[in-house]
Design goal:
The chain is mostly helical. It has one helix and no strands. Keywords: Membrane, Transmembrane, Transmembrane helix.
């Protein structure tokens, strides 16, 4: 009786070993793939955000003061933000109005 129980237990452990090794191998590679995918997504999002931030024209505007008290006297709430990309009052820093 004890020998039969030992044989059954041995077969169950062997079966578990045959199932668990490929399963753990697959799960480990799945985890590596998910980490790589998350890193790729994060880098892609950072690059998109950087491209958008380079479209902000405030630093080249003649109204830009570059002080931490008041960045832009025309639109202080939107200065250096994504809302300033299509600023209607933007004028290049070398711009001079024609006087008649």
């Amino acid at each position: 009786m004890l020998q039969a129980l030992h044989l059954v237990l041995y077969e169950l452990i062997r079966l578990w070993h045959q199932v668990s090794v490929p399963l753990c191998f697959s799960l480990a590679w799945l985890l590596v793939g998910l980490i790589a995918w998350n890193l790729w997504s994060a880098l892609r999002d950072v690059a998109a955000q950087a491209r958008q931030m380079h479209d902000i024209p405030c630093a080249n505007c003649q109204f830009f003061t570059n002080t931490h008290f008041l960045k832009c006297p025309v639109h202080p709430s939107t200065a250096l933000s994504a809302e300033a990309i299509n600023c209607p009052d933007y004028q290049a820093s070398g711009y001079r109005a024609l006087e008649e």
